[in-house]
Amino acid sequence: MPITTEGLRFEYAPGTPFSHVALEDISVTIDDGSFTSLIGHTGSGKSTFIQLIAGLIKPTAGKIYLDGEDINQKGYDKKKLRRKIGVLFQYPEYQLFEETVEKDIAFGPTKAGFTEDEVAVKVRKAMELVGLDYETFREKSPFELSGGEKRKVAIAGVLATDPQILILDEPIAGLDPIGRQDFMEMVRDLNRGGKTVIMISHNMDDLAEYSTRVIALYQGKVYLDGTPNEVFSRYGHLKRAGLDLPETGKVIQKLRDRGIDIDREIITKDALIRELKKLLGGKDD
Amino acid sequence: MEEIIRSEGLTYRYETETPKRPALDGVDLRVREGEFVAVLGHNGSGKSTLAKHINALLVPSEGKMFTNGLDTSEEDNVIEIRRSAGMVFQNPDNQIVATVVEEDVAFGPENLGVRQEDIIEKVYLALNMVNMGDFGKRSPHMLSGGQKQRVAIAGVLAMDPKIIIFDESTSMLDPVGRKEVMATINYLNKVEKKTIVLITHFMEETVDADRVVVMIKGRIEDEGTPGEIFRKRDLLMRAGLIPPFASDVAYRLKDEGFDIGQALTVDELVEGICRSLQKD
Amino acid sequence: MIKDITLGQYFPGESPIHKMDARTKLILTLVLIVIIFFVHTYIGYLCVAALLVLTAVISKVGARFVYNGIKPILPIALFTFVINLFFISGETVIFEWRFIKITLEGLRQSVITVVRLVLLVLSSTMMTLTTSPMELTTALERLLKPLSKIGFPVHEIALMMSIALRFIPTLLEETDKIMKAQTARGADFEEGGLIKKAKALVPLLVPLFVSAFRRAYDLALAMEARCYNGGEGRTKMRVSHFHKRDLFAFAAVGLVVIVIALGY
Question: Are the C-beta atoms of residues B241 and A176 closer than 8 Å to each other?
Fold first, then answer.
């Protein structure tokens, strides 16, 4: 179920003094099972892009195809779209509203049209995925939980429809380091299990570690597009777009500045350590 | 140097909850004037509860807290304590009162009854310290997160505090905003000589601190310079903290038999690698 | 974007109108509104219109923003115009076709209604364009100060107003976010009848209230930390005083009142 966009353009408040083009001429295809990261500094259009492909806003021009079907054409069943795409926004715990954890998580699958029995199974499975014990939490009010637990309920609420495509907009914001690690590992497992992941994050290290593809947006246009190795090794380009390097990139760039020959396409921590060992060990001979 | 913050056996229990253990359990915190102290801990370690005691937003259930020499449990001291120990909170949106930047910064001095002629001067002095002098007439909701947080800092600075407490003030910001705020904190400590208490769960934010205090379950588990603390890997593990990239790489190299020395930052890591390479 | 809505449509500037004491602007706007309500002569409207145009020119706000200020009521104005035109009966018929009858009196009355409506909105627009919401609440606080002697919480109400103004854009943005998040979970805010629509609002309203309460709690804490202790002993950074320009403004409006009075 690939997502394809053609000449996508989005303009805020067109025809007013506040009009502002957020996205221009975006034509990309996001393959099934990929882990695609979107990077770009605040205002680059990345949030607009995911809202468009999730069918939450309509493009000013251009088309979005899911499974070959134009999602904005007349008569397109939005329910189908909601079943296939799950969206997790920043601070998702702020969207909780039901009396109990179970009811809140059931909201999505119920709206998607699953039967009561199916919903019950899906809720249980989603809670298991995020690490919430079903019996302990199902009857609790989501508002009496701790921050971390609320976040888990919200994530379960999105996963419960079992979407094929997961869109994540800065999902780790506000989590503490361990919470971040746990979350990223869960996303990686979901991706390995076959789900397509599209993720926005400022944390370049996570993206370098887990993505299969990185798209950098700059001033509403696709600026860089490739594997993490390709994108994150283009230090100059990233800097010009106001983007951070992953920590690995910072180390390698500084070593290269000192005249040490080390491969720019190393982007994960483990690979860096391996390479440094070779470098340091090699000198011993 | 004089101790500007001192707690003795500070214990605190939240009334609304029925916890088996108190949020703070016999904390003895000491901060000298001009010091930059980072309080590190996992969510629920009690670090924010401790911070709120410093400016009397909370008062001890047991034990004592002295800020700038004043007992925080004395009702009459509260205003003076809050003037001398300002606090910057987590959510930039929820601490800005006014619809114009300069009017927000003026809120503190106005509450203190500062003479009208002096308020403007204090407001712009404070805004200039955080590099927001040109934004006085702007509307806060049009600013970036980092800018809003700097306005909040200016709002505290306008009261001429000796101490500034940052209660997870960077946790909701993007990397650019985070850098802006960290640079401001360092400037306030190094140049303006403010005493800084930084509450955070990000170890990389503590590398410039004079001292790091690690909290676990309402107690101070350990304290020392960033270098001393970063070295204690099982302490960090127990505290639910993740060492910064550079320091972790240096340790893992050491584990593999390549000792390049300790590194807290990327620069120190690169320096260490180059040093080892030259040695041979 | 929803947050681009300019709040209270304040247009910052340094003109004499901007610098005028907010109390003057508040009082004079009220006076103008009263005039518009009670006057029924062309010369009266002309005077008020001339005064407002003069204000707009001096304030250098620019026609576009002034127009934006009155734009929202134009459809209403048009609607009342049409209604009046067809339903006010009179003697002098100027147009008749089947059951539609337009009379001179109807036309006259319709024009006057629209003019009054536009003038009303224009006078308050000129005030809000040249006065920040904060200045306005301060002015209100100072004008109502005498009421605090009889126990009316003037300071608290003014503070509540300014905080409300401060948080409107934040909450609008939040509404937008929550709406999108719930839509993505399958909520539908548009379809269905009245009851279904009202029910659909629950997933939006509950989080919005929870968030508003959390923000209120945070803000209260932040205000306390900044030594807020009620209105007692507070000073103000910007206290406007009456100047010559305020006298001019009073004189100008006074003149209009006299002209109108003579015109009766």
Answer: no
